[in-house]
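ligand=iron/sulfur cluster
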Amino acid sequence: MPARAEGAETTPLGLYLHIPFCSAICHYCNFNRGLIDEPLRAAYVDAVCTHIGREAEPVAVDTIYFGGGTPSLLSPVEIARLIDACRSAFVLSAETEITMEANPETVDVQRLRGFRESGVTRLSFGVQSFRDDELKRLGRVHTAARARAAIDEARTAGFDNVSVDLMMWLPGQSVAQWLESVDALIAAGPDHASLYLLELYPNAPLQEVMAREQWSRTPDDDAADMYEDAMARLEGAGFRQYEISNVARTGRESRHNLKYWRDSGWLAFGCGAHGSRHGRRWRHVAETRAYVDRVAAGADPIAQSRTLDRETQLAEALFMGLRLVDGIAEDTYRARFDQDVWSRYGIALSPALEAGLLIRDDEGMRLTRRGMLLANEVMRVFV
Ligand code: SF4
């Protein structure tokens, strides 16, 4: 099993738990999710608990992340059961960060208190926009007012670590409209924020709606302004950017997501979930019922698994590490992979250095802000 790959752990593991249910499907969504189905939901929670128990081993864990889908559609009792299953199977540190993604329309103070009591320490709200017209366009089922209320309710319920996701470069969105949402986010006072560019997938219903309504996106230059102006406003409000798409107040960086960017190991549970440990990558069957059936039958829910050679491991680690504002310390990678990063990639990365997209000094390598905007081009050398 991938979870039992050879090699000592150098840092505590993370656990990713996928909850695939949603109350409505957003027009742009390309995640592994489906509409909530009550009988399937109960069977699914049982299956994830069983699967966690099967992977038990005395290894340190310091982050748990409930992603989705909409994990906040589960009850606090179900979330508590899943956390307890993790606690029984692994060695959870007292400081374990337990994040739950939540949609504003699924919570109230009472439910949030329940999640807090069940052990959740961090909430990540999918807000996407603080403008009702944009929320409607995206097929979101909450309003901007509900999003603001949910953040306030989280504080009332005792959460001192709250993140908000926003999406930029929406159809028909001007730079000024985008910055309205950024200002509203700052006013709502979260501890962390993630800003993503809306990705338009070929089969997303949003494509059809855009064609019908004749909505288009502003030019690429505007998207660059959106990104740079938002980062400037957030920094002015006391946030520090630490990753291409993420800002946080001091000490409120996502410890779980840092595992992805720092190439640490994490185990995965639930349908379609991906895990990574000791150079192995695996993913589970995507379909919810198939996952439940496989676990119930005592079978392995893994759909695909591969072990990366050292060269590919290094390339993936650099690809992820350069997303961090602090970039990568070449010494660390030399010690870990027994390869000199600059000897291997120097020629390919030189144009990015000369174009001012990348900086290399005694501390290592990192992208400039302009380099972050053009990260896909810089990172192409690792693919
Ligand atoms: S709530 Fe999230 S996972 Fe569910 S449909 Fe909307 S974008 Fe997709």
